[in-house]
Amino acid sequence: MKRLLRLLQWLLKAAVFFTLFAFALNNQQETRVNFFFSTYWSAPTVLVVLSAFTLGVVVGVLGMVPRWWRERQAVKQSQPAAAASPATPPTPSTAPEMPRGI
Predict the structure, then answer these.
(1) Where are the domains of the chain?
(2) 50: buried, middle or exposed (CB in 10 Å: 19+, 13-18, 0-12)?
């Protein structure tokens, strides 16, 4: 079962790769991106799309950094409090009973 799932994962990865590869081959014509003050950038369409995607990922990650930083700081602050109160080991009277032989 595990081998079948691994094979399906690789097939999915190969399908995505070949789809993107075909997209790149079919979009090799020049595209002109106009900026301000009569400046522009001419590049193949696939590079324009890839650049827009990369820029979107970078902006998304940078937008998440403050939240990740706050969460990380909160975890660091809560760890010393958890370490200060050691857990007491269960006594035989309070320990849950283990099931016997199956």
Answers:
(1) 17-79
(2) middle
Provide the 3-class DSSP secondary structure of residue 35: coil
Cα-based torsion angle of the residue sequence 56, 60, 62, 66 in order, rounded to the nearest 10 degrees? 170
Residue 87: the pLDDT is 59
Distance CA 19, CA 9 (A): 15
Count the alpha carbons within 13 Å of 73 in the hemisphere toward its beta carbon: 6
**What are the tens digits of pLDDT across the range 45-97?**
888 888 888 999 999 999 999 898 888 888 888 887 555 555 566 566 555 66
Total-model pTM: 0.51
